[in-house]
Amino acid sequence: MNQIELELYEKGYNYIIGVDEVGRGSLFGDVTACALILPKYFYILDVKDSKKLSPKKREYLNEIIISNCVGYSISCVDNNTIDKINIKQATRLAMKYAITNLLQKTKISTDKIIAIVDAERLDLSIDQISLNHADDLVHHVSCASIVAKVYRDRLCNEWDKLYPQYKLYKNKGYGTAEHIELIKKYGASDMHRKSFLNNILRTN
After folding, report:
1. Which end of the chain has fewer CB atoms at under 10 Å, N or C?
2. Is 190 a known ligand-binding residue?
3. Is residue 21 a known part of a binding site?
4. Is residue 28 part of a domain?
5. What is the dihedral of CA 10, 96, 64, 38, to 10 degrees?
6. Domain count, the chain
7. What are the backbone dihedrals phi and psi of residue 78, each rounded to the nearest 5 degrees, phi first?
8. With 70 as the cut, is the pLDDT of residue 203 above it?
9. What family is reported (predicted)?
10. Would you call 113 helix, strand, or coil by DSSP?
11. In angstroms, rounded to a whole number, what is the distance separating the alpha carbons of residues 64 and 14?
């Protein structure tokens, strides 16, 4: 468990919310955020930033996290909204929705609860800490990153059935060389983030 989490418990906080997003840099689809609460002093072996885990390991840890957490919530903001308000604001919105929904679901008193947010400062009524690389440094946030990643990867597999020409099952919507070439070949779909594609479409 991270020293920050231990110190927060020692200061009297009963619950910590870990918050992270996935899909921020993707060219396609939603940005997805997860907020979750673990039991006090609860630790899951092998948890780390989801980007440092294999898909199989993420799936395995995802089940353990979901089965043992006090509660979790996932929120998505779609590509059209991303294009309207920009990805930074959309990411903050997804994170805020995830936290708000989690608090509503768990009905936990907000006076002894604090959120640790990866790299963003949110408009919240509860205490929060914004920490760069929290998904790699804080256990709660690492868990949130895994749950968000597994959820969005499963979405990408479903989206792949609707848009097989872009090989989303493989690239998860990110700007790989192959994905960019497929966008140039087939054009952008209605789920691509048009604000991300200006340079790609301009050179097509």
Report:
1. C
2. no
3. yes
4. yes
5. 20
6. 1
7. -80, 170
8. no
9. Belongs to the RNase HII family.
10. strand
11. 21
